[in-house]
Amino acid sequence: MSRQHIEDGNGSGGYPADILRAESGRAESGLLAAGRPATEASGRRRGTRWDSHADRVEPPWLPSEGTDVLLVTGNPRLQAEAERIVAALGVELRTAASAEEALPHWDSAGTVLLGSDIRELPPRRRAPAVLLGLAAEGDRLWQLAAGLGAERVAVLPEGAAWLAEHLSRSQAPDPGGLVLGLTGACGGAGASTAAIWLAQEAGAHGIRTLLIDGDPRGGGLELSLAAEDTPGLRWPDLADAKGSIDPEQLAGSLPTAGGFAFLSWPGTRDRAAQPDALAVAAVMDAGRRAFELVVVDIGRGTEPLRGFAWDCDRILVVSPAQLRAAVAAARLLQDLPPVDAALVVRGGKGSALDAGVIAESLGLRLHALLPELRGTAAAAETGRLLDFGKRRAVRRFAAPVLDLLEDGAE
After folding, report:
1. What is the 3-state secondary structure (H, E, C) of the chain?
2. CATH code of the domain in which 294 resides
3. Distance in angstroms (rounded) separating the CA atoms of residues 26 and 33
4. Of 145, 271, 291, 391, which is least surrounded by CB within 10 A?
5. What is the pLDDT of residues 348-398, one digit of tens each?
6. Does 85 lie in the same domain as 226?
7. How far apart are CA 145 and CA 389, in angstroms?
8. Cα separation of 183 and 315, whole Å?
9. Same domain for 300 and 209?
């Protein structure tokens, strides 16, 4: 699932350190939440229902795929805003002032919108698709969204246009490609390098791939690709983007290097126009629909985390095999949204800490080991990282990205 957010430019997000339990929790809330009992009576086979009077097998009960919208809030302002948006779309809307009142309709609803005044979900029910809130709520809104496992956040009325488009697309959903984010546990962890190599490996296998530079203060990812003179759009060109962006037009306007498209901040000293959260959301959505894989170099600052991490389906935390980096990674996990996260450890045989020990201490799955190759830092400075990406050790590190794509297709 994608993690997309709309804000007024000052929102934030957070998530408990025990991040991997989010996926198992959602899996648990599937069939059981839909009404199927955990155990079946004696004489019946799990997954089917037998008619004792005839040799007939009926298909198992499955929840209906509703197209209506369930709005759960007791906040009059949020209700009025949501009702206006849904009415314009011509979609059926059910309203409930509390989670208890919404319970009979929760599982059958096509989309669940939850107001920020609702602090707890009904037991064993799926997380809301969108948490609705007001700009004045600030950090509390994003902390609540992370705690509830909300897929997206919409700050109203600023995010009304995005919410309308999201609800419209949900009537005929197209999941699009996988959005994979990378962020470093500390400065110099190697997240940007890893992101480039992952995009390069995917492109080498014929996967339509987009690399996104998510750190406006990172100096411009294009410099590490020696592609600063390559024609195509950069982030400042999209600063005024609003609403829907045509996916194919975006794809055709982006520069390419190493077999993949990229969207970078300019590698210049000039002050660049920065797109707001609405523009970032529009670009990320178009990228997802145009490419099979979107690799996002998120960066470590609060702004990039809020702006890009919530759009990611999965996040890789890159950490050197060092104690201080591991501690920094533990703190970083508290700022990540509720998506599947895994660990990439940079190091070798002489590293101070064992990669498996670091992963276990953080409660994360160890995704891969990022090799420490002599000259990598210099290659990044001189734009030769793509040459290093062809080495066997790098390709061995990057190969699991293909497994992520296969897992996402299941």
Report:
1. CCCCEECCCCCCCCCCCCCCHHHHHHHHCCHHHHCCCCCCCCCCCCCCEECCCCCCEECCCCCCCCCCEEEECCCHHHHHHHHHHHHHHCCCEEEECCHHHHHHHCCCCCEEEEECCCCCCCCCCCCCCEEEEEHHHCHHHHHHHHHHCCCEEEEECCCHHHHHHHHHHHCCCCCCCEEEEEEECCCCCCHHHHHHHHHHHHHHCCCCEEEEECCCCCCCHHHHHCCCCCCCCCHHHHCCCCCCCCHHHHHHHCCEECCEEEECCCCCCCCCCCCCHHHHHHHHHHHHHHCCEEEEECCCCHHHHHHHHHHCCEEEEEEECCHHHHHHHHHHHCCCCCCEEEEEEECCCCCCCCHHHHHHHHCCEEEEEECCCCCHHHHHHHCCHHHHCCCHHHHHHHCHHHHHHHHHHC
2. 3.40.50.300
3. 10
4. 271
5. 777 778 999 999 999 999 999 999 899 999 999 999 999 999 999 999 999
6. no
7. 38
8. 8
9. yes
209 and 279 inside one domain: yes
Q: How far apart are CA 80 and CA 393, in angstroms?
A: 57
Domain check: are 287 and 355 in the same one?
yes
Residues 103 and 135 in one domain: yes
CB-based burial label for 338 (10 Å; 0-12, 13-18, 19+): buried
User: Domain boundary residue among 170, 198, 233?
Assistant: 170
Asked whether the CA dihedral 205, 208, 213, 219 is positive or negative, the reply is positive
Print the domain residue range for 109.
Answer: 5-31+64-170
Give yes or no for residue 26 having a pLDDT over 70.
Answer: no
Of 138, 170, 202, which residue is a domain's last?
A: 170
Per residue in 289-304, pLDDT (tens digit) is 999 999 999 987 777 7
Cβ–Cβ contacts within 10 Å for residue 241, how many? 18
Residue 348 within any structural domain of the chain: yes
Q: Which range is least confidently modeled, 15-29, 65-79, 256-270, 306-320?
A: 15-29
Residue with tokens 């996967």: 207
What is the value of pTM for the model shown?
A: 0.66
Residue 268 and residue 360 in one domain: yes
